[in-house]
Design the sequence.
């Protein structure tokens, strides 16, 4: 039953996109989609990187989990973006590329996309931006859905925008100006 709860939670935007954030579906076809979301922060790239990796359990939305468990990212190639609770565990994505504090790429299908057979690359880029730091999250997903991806892509975009907004809020809360 928790799985159904997670699926319903997947369809709702969890957090408002901050004014300095950007979200869009850049491509959608019958075989997949590309979404891109970003925000700008005053925090340096190293701080953003450490929050992304080490604090994921604090900012990743618990309603975007299988059991409201504990999240972790093992930031090494072959590492796991995992969730654990008691004797249950789930690999949300597998880490495929790590270049601290610039880039993290994870592959797989998030949430209900796993059971749909949708597979993608979630690419985190942390770059300088006019004396600040831009965090860009791009998810390029592909697979086969009889109904296509036109309706699903905007929903995934909203969810990704919400997750990125949570990271941004975590940075503002943890490192106030």
Sequence:
């Amino acid at each position: 039953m928790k799985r159904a709860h997670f699926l319903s939670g997947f369809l709702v935007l969890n957090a408002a996109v901050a004014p300095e954030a950007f979200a869009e579906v850049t491509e959608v076809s019958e075989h997949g989609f590309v979404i891109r979301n970003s925000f700008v922060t005053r925090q340096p790239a190293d701080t953003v990187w450490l929050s992304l990796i080490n604090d994921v359990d604090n900012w990743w939305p618990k309603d975007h989990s299988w059991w409201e468990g504990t999240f972790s990212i093992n930031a090494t190639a072959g590492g796991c973006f995992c969730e654990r609770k008691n004797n249950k565990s789930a690999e949300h994505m597998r880490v495929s590329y790590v270049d601290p504090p610039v880039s993290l790429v994870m592959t797989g299908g998030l949430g209900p996309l796993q059971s749909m057979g949708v597979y993608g690359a979630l690419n985190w880029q942390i770059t300088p931006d006019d004396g600040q730091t831009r965090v860009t999250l791009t998810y390029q997903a592909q697979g086969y859905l009889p109904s296509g991806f036109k309706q699903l892509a905007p929903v995934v975009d909203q969810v990704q925008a919400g997750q990125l907004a949570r990271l941004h809020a975590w940075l503002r809360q943890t490192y106030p100006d």
